[in-house]
Specification:
six-stranded mixed β-sheet; alpha/beta; 443 residues; four-stranded parallel β-sheet
Length: 443
């Protein structure tokens, strides 16, 4: 049965009270829509974080358009090449040879010699049964001076146990070779944005002689390889846990998963979990808890009962943020998200019990093409570009993936961003369409 997607739709299947929602899938899966809010990161942005590497994407021309724009908008075209799959390649069955020859052509034309190539294949190769294992074996034998890492840009992997984003992080960090261990070196892995390391927690680690490094600190290949000497990896982002597991198996690097949170007690437990691991005395974090509480109180005094909406691209735990803001008295109306992660199950159950009327809104259902900008005439405050677009507000916090913040400083930063967004309008229509805007700024 065909559906006319241009008819004015109802909200069935795209909006539900949290008390009536299921876990982990909130809405039925089907045909999907992608909003014009394009500031979040994708696998191209993430892969380009690895220094002295060259990315090669092998897919159909229509898919290449998006990834080419990503590299161009970051000004990194010189580190990025494409190989277009055409109809004759699909019909002739010579994809293995085409990939090897295409990569060889890229190598021969490059004006510099990268340390490694991250070669991304697409769903086309899977559909036609391309022997990628043989292809990469041939590449490594033919060009032994380079590392070749197989990446994947498969939309069909999105609903699998290993979607493209965590797979990309595995790809990136698997380039790290094992080094002699430095008992005082700690990595922060899996973050697209450089972590803001201001605050007493980071001071405590440095005062105890620990050196902290993440990929954004690496100016060259050697810096990047030094991450192999760390004895411990700290992980904030759930999509980086598989990469941490690979590094533990490959290099014996232990890891601690301390998910991002805006909840003061959760933050304290995560920070102390790291201190316990390192044999450092636990802290009460009294001053930090007071600082975070005051920041939220000050923001609430300014923002008052203004309706607030949140989306899943702004923070990795949107339900957790909603819980904290609601408990602080903010008038949170809805959260834009399509699924609930395991990290948020407790937040979800808390909201069901204590704030049952909170609305959850989908973002990818085709109905959302026509259900955006339906807010009332009064002022609304949005947290995230998707929330800004769907609610039609220029008063929004323009941030992605927690804005590079962690811990109590992250709570304070969010409160300050909300105050700024409340008092100063942005040109949302212009800003949210810039692909990868969040790669350079969080305001």
């Amino acid at each position: 049965m065909l559906k006319n997607l241009h008819e004015k739709p109802d909200k069935e299947g795209v909006e539900i009270k949290v008390s009536e929602a299921g876990f982990p899938a909130i809405f039925p899966s089907g045909l999907e829509y992608s909003s014009p809010a394009r500031g979040h990161w994708n696998i191209v942005n993430t892969g380009l974080l690895v220094p002295e590497t060259h990315l090669i994407y092998i897919c159909a021309a229509s898919c290449l358009r998006g990834v080419v724009l990503t590299a161009a908008e970051q000004g990194l075209q010189d580190r990025f090449s494409t190989i277009a799959i055409r109809e004759n390649n699909v019909l002739s069955g010579d994809n293995e040879e085409m990939i090897v020859e295409g990569v060889g052509d890229v190598i021969s034309r490059l004006p510099y010699k990268p340390k490694a190539f991250m070669v991304y294949t697409s769903c086309v190769q899977t559909f036609i049964g391309c022997d990628l294992q043989h292809t990469f074996k041939t590449l490594r034998e033919t060009y032994p001076d380079f590392h070749f890492i197989d990446g994947y840009m498969y939309p069909i992997m999105r609903k699998t146990s290993m979607p493209p984003i965590p797979q990309t992080r595995i790809t990136m960090y698997s380039l790290i070779d094992e080094r002699e261990k430095n008992s005082r070196r700690i990595n922060l892995i899996g973050n697209n944005l450089k972590t803001d390391r201001t605050g007493r927690f980071w001071d405590i680690l440095e005062a105890n002689g620990y050196e902290l490094k993440e990929i954004q600190d690496c100016e060259n290949w050697e810096d990047f390889q030094e991450m192999g000497s760390a004895v411990l990896n700290l992980v904030f982002n759930p999509t980086a846990v598989p990469a941490a597991k690979v590094l533990k198996k490959k290099h014996g690097q232990d890891y601690i998963y301390i998910p991002f949170s805006h909840d003061s007690e959760e933050i304290a437990e995560s920070l102390n979990k790291v201190l316990d691991k390192l044999g450092i005395a636990r802290e009460e974090w009294t001053e930090e808890k007071t600082m975070a509480s005051k920041a939220l109180q000050d923001a609430k005094a300014l923002i008052g009962d203004t309706p607030v909406v949140i989306d899943y691209t702004a923070v990795t735990r949107p339900l957790g943020l909603a819980k904290v803001l609601l408990n602080a008295g903010f008038n949170v109306k809805k959260v834009y998200m399509d699924t609930i992660t395991a990290d948020e199950k407790a937040d979800f159950e808390y909201l069901q019990k204590n704030y049952p009327d909170l609305l959850l809104n989908g973002t990818v259902n085709p109905k959302m093409r026509f259900l955006h900008h339906e807010k009332a005439d009064e002022k609304w405050l949005a947290i995230g570009q998707q929330a800004s677009y769907f609610i039609g507000s220029n008063n929004y916090v323009d941030t992605i993936e927690n804005g590079g913040m962690y811990g109590y400083e992250g709570v304070v930063a969010m409160a300050e961003w909300m105050k700024d967004a409340f008092t100063t309008e942005k040109d949302a229509k212009s800003l949210i369409q810039i692909k990868g805007w969040g790669c350079g700024s969080c305001i």
